[in-house]
Design goal:
By secondary structure, this protein is mainly alpha-helical. It is built from five helices and two strands. The termini are far apart.
Length: 101
């Protein structure tokens, strides 16, 4: 949560999809300043209920599942490749393996 704002400052985006841990007023205000939609479900202890797009939030699950499948490939998970170019090549290869299943 502490680094979310620094990460988002460098990018232009239409939506920010995150889990309940990122439901903070200052982060939501920052996302609104960037002109984007915050797709973050409210925490259970929030006093005022806030609406979010549940259908868009389901897309986050697809990303989480893909990251979990990448972890099955040890070479990518332990990052044996130190050069970013080679690491990206292995990520593309693993993505193709997963897609071809």
């Amino acid at each position: 949560m502490t680094q979310a704002r620094a990460l988002l400052e460098a990018y232009a985006f239409d939506r920010a999809i995150a889990d309940k841990g990122y439901d903070a007023d200052d982060l939501l205000a920052f996302i609104a300043e960037k002109g984007a939609e915050a797709v973050i479900p409210p925490k259970a202890n929030r006093t005022e209920e806030r609406a979010y797009d549940k259908h868009v939030y389901k897309e986050r699950h697809l990303v989480e599942c893909f990251i979990n499948k990448i972890k099955w490939y040890r070479r990518v998970f332990t990052r044996y490749e130190k050069l970013a170019r080679r690491y990206m090549a292995f990520l593309h290869l693993v993505g193709a393996f997963i897609w071809l299943r």
